[in-house]
Design a protein that fits this description.
The chain has about 475 residues and is of the alpha+beta class. It is built from 14 helices and 18 strands. The protein folds into three domains: about 25 residues; about 350 residues, q2cbj1_9rhob like domain (Jelly Rolls); about 35 residues, no CATH class. The structure holds fe (ii) ion (FE2). Keywords: Membrane, Transmembrane, Transmembrane helix.
Amino acid sequence: MGQKIRQRNATKKENLEKNSGVEKNGLQNVPKRGRASYFKFFFVTAGITLLLQQYGPDVVHRIFFRRNIVPARSDYYILRDIWTDEDIHNLIDYVKDLREFPTTASDLTSVSEHIGEAAPFDEKGQCPFLLVPNQNHSECILPSRIDVAQHFLKYGGRDCLKELYPSLSSRLQGFAGFIFDSLNSSVLDRLFKSQQYKDAATASCGGMTVFDPIQLGIIVLLPGQTVAMHYDVPWYWGATRFNIPQWLLIAMESSGLFENIRVRQSQGVAYLHKWLNHEKDGGGFYFYPKGTGGRAEIVPAEFNTGLVLDGSVLIHGVNTYQPKKLPPIINPSDKNSLVYAGDDFWQLKANDEIIALYKTSDLRISLVWRSRCFESQEMKQKWADYKDKIDVQDVLKVLKDDMKLKGISNVDYLPPLDLALKILDTYVVYPVEKCSIFPWNYCMLSKIVPTSVSGFINSLLTPICA
Ligand SMILES: [Fe+2]
């Protein structure tokens, strides 16, 4: 009897060992059924991952960014062989002679700097999140292009970058010099009077042939920097960047409510950096020829080529220049500038302190110019003589009335900062690239949570965010 029980137990043990994969020699093998489950799990996971990679971003877009589809309203034209070698040499000297380039965040030209959102510096001399110092550094206001900055920080640009605020905002703060007068120069004349430019500008202006040069800008990017997607600032009879904050002008344009007073314009971009290898260094000019729902088209930042388009109705920007490099940290609350120091060297300065040094050949340099377009010399003269100004509050009233018609009823009670953000949210739409199933830049989380937990969130995010 006892022997039978021992035999039964031995058989049971053998069966158990067989099923569990433990063999007599003590080695543990994966059982056949377990191995099948493992393969099944692997293939299902791989399949789901592939499906998510392939279709996930598209599904996310269909769910969250459906309203982001705005058709394009303009065309573009490419210019080639614009200048001679001597012209380029003179233009580079011209750029160096300008000597000091502030960051694009300092591009404040309006006498009405804000709509009431101005706030004081904190005890450490820093501006509250989203705000930057005003022209004379007496208070903090929304950056003139908060529409651009907000979208870039939220989605990390076209590359869906997941980076913390210091790094991402440094990428955004390229350097710009704008000249609103003294546009007369024989080198520039060669461009503006060339037939290819005239043809392109006429086509871009819808057939208008009288141009009124507005502005010549020199945009300088450091390695790792970008020009985030944006609309150019529009011009209206009575409402310009000199009396209305730029972000509000963008909202006016995107709302379509001020079309009857809009002045058409054309933008040209040309590249001066002979040293830039556009295949290796990136920095291509991109735009959305089919509107925000279509794919971006990229034109390489090839030396001595250019583009003409109406950037106030066609979203455009610059891919990251030398994308594998991180730019130096540029604190927007500081007074930052890029200064030519002679001998082909440039100093990056923060509050007059040198924080980095560059050679001219490290920089991506482009010329950007804009002209208003008129159907006749009389209309051009009328613009020059026009003195009426639209008040910021009148613009806000038109937008608020329209927002109420759209069902946004609380606009009269919103604090100015919230009103500004609501206006941008309602009217200014930029595309979100399908480069990630999670296009939001989660690294900015610490900036939007209550300050009591922001430090903790930041410490969690720092190891995984650049
Ligand atoms: Fe632009």
